[in-house]
Specification:
Layout (H helix, E strand, L loop, with lengths): L4 E7 L16 E2 L2 E2 H8 L7 E6 L4 H8 L5 E4 L4 H9 L6 E6 L7 H14 L1 E7 L4 E5 L2 E6 L5 E10 H11 L7 H8 L5 E3 L26 E12 L3 E4 L2 E4 L3 E2 L7 H13 L5 H4 L12 H13 L3 E11 L9 H12 L6 E6 L5 H4 L3 E12 L1
Parallel strand pairs: 1-4, 1-6, 4-5, 7-11, 16-17
Antiparallel strand pairs: 2-3, 6-10, 7-10, 8-9, 12-15, 12-18, 13-14, 16-18
Length: 377
């Protein structure tokens, strides 16, 4: 009888260093929330259950992402250590892998190697051996040198026998750790290292989300915007380009969830060399709870007008499996013209599907890309 394998995915952080106006794991990466890519990696027959730790603030949206995969979501704590401890209380497998939600590039092979390592050694921690010279520094000066032959960069997943890591976390009390191998090493024994992967990077800064994207910012008065929202709100319509369109569910968002206008606003702001919509309309501000995105776009038009600019062209590409958008394209173009002041003939709204592939293809949400060009008034 095989050991049952559980996975804990840590997604309760804020990711403030990434500079988004929300949890970085919910920011778009290749047309889907970054966390979605991580979740999908563990939807394999070798894993028996997945438990995701989410903050109270993101609980609804992360639960919507996890629902089609039948993953359980638990409310995390103020620290990663506390979130893992809470998730461990829900684990039912004999083996548990703990993984950062911000590592969406983990391979199937590494996951299997981690499981195999736990079976052989009782623990398995993915790590990369350093090839560069490693030093310690303080106040801008080198204070010590490390032996690179014995120095590693620790990654996740980190796998353990559940009873051991659960006991270690119980003994740790309120002490905070940066990773699970430190807890295990302090109260059980030194953890066993396995080969990690250079490609298994952790999304930390906003630039990490731009890997291999085709757009470059060096386009004069041209700007690019992208936004994505998950279905799950209890209402019978969505808003797209300021137009209400019947749908069996709404889009989850702090505002009215008009994913197209959000992408358009970011494209316009980008073209004008301004900051993104999260700066001007932060979701931490109650004033924008349920806000009409059309009104926010009007404010954006005011911002670029103050710089002597106006919208010249708009190209909006919507990716959605539902609802059927073709009957509403002309209405969306007319509404965009009304809101931006651009001519209808210089606005394009196209709609397509993802042929059943990925987050959008599985009907879990909508992704919109927008390109805006501005001209001087």
């Amino acid at each position: 009888m095989k050991d049952k394998v559980s996975v804990i995915i840590c997604a309760a952080g804020k990711g403030e260093r990434a500079g988004f106006d929300k949890n970085k794991l919910l920011a778009p990466l290749y047309g889907a929330p970054a966390l979605w890519h991580t979740l999908k990696k563990f939807n394999i027959h070798e894993v028996d259950e997945v438990i995701v730790a989410a903050s109270e603030y993101d609980l609804e949206e992360i639960s919507a992402l996890c629902k089609p995969l039948n993953y359980r979501v638990v409310k995390g704590g103020a620290t990663r250590t506390e979130s893992v401890r809470k998730a461990l209380d829900e684990v039912t497998g004999e083996i548990v892998l703990i993984h950062d939600g911000a590592r969406p590039f983990v391979s199937h092979e590494l996951i299997l190697n981690c499981i195999d390592g736990v079976k052989k050694f009782g623990s398995a921690v993915a790590a990369i051996k350093l090839t560069d010279t490693a030093v310690c520094g303080q106040l801008g000066y080198i204070t010590d040198r490390l032996d690179r032959d014995t120095t590693f960069r620790v990654q996740t997943p980190q796998g353990f026998l559940t009873e051991d890591i659960r006991r270690a976390y119980a003994l740790a009390g309120d002490k905070v750790y940066t990773d699970d191998s430190a807890v295990y090493g302090e109260f059980i024994e030194p953890a066993r290292l396995i080969d990690g992967e250079e490609s298994n990077i952790k999304l930390t800064y906003k630039s990490d989300f731009n890997r291999e994207l085709p757009f470059t910012a060096a386009c004069g008065l041209t700007g690019f915007g992208v936004d994505i929202h998950a279905f799950g709100k209890k209402q019978n319509y969505i808003k797209l380009c300021g137009v209400e369109i019947p749908c069996d569910t709404g889009l989850i968002a702090h505002s009215d969830g008009d994913v197209a206008l959000h992408a358009v606003m970011d494209a316009i702001l980008s073209a004008a060399g301004l900051k993104d919509i999260g700066h001007y309309f932060p979701d931490s501000d109650p004033a924008f709870k349920g806000a009409d995105s059309a009104e926010l776009l009007k404010k954006v038009i005011g911002l670029i007008s103050d710089k002597g600019l106006k919208v010249n062209n708009l190209s909006v590409a919507v990716q959605a499996e539902k609802p059927r958008l073709s009957p509403y394209i002309d209405k969306t173009v007319a509404r965009l013209a009304e809101l931006t002041g651009a001519d209808c003939g210089k606005i394009s709204v196209t709609a397509g599907t993802c042929e059943g592939l990925g987050f959008v293809g599985e009907g879990l949400g909508i992704c919109v890309h927008a390109v805006a060009t501005l001209k001087e008034v």
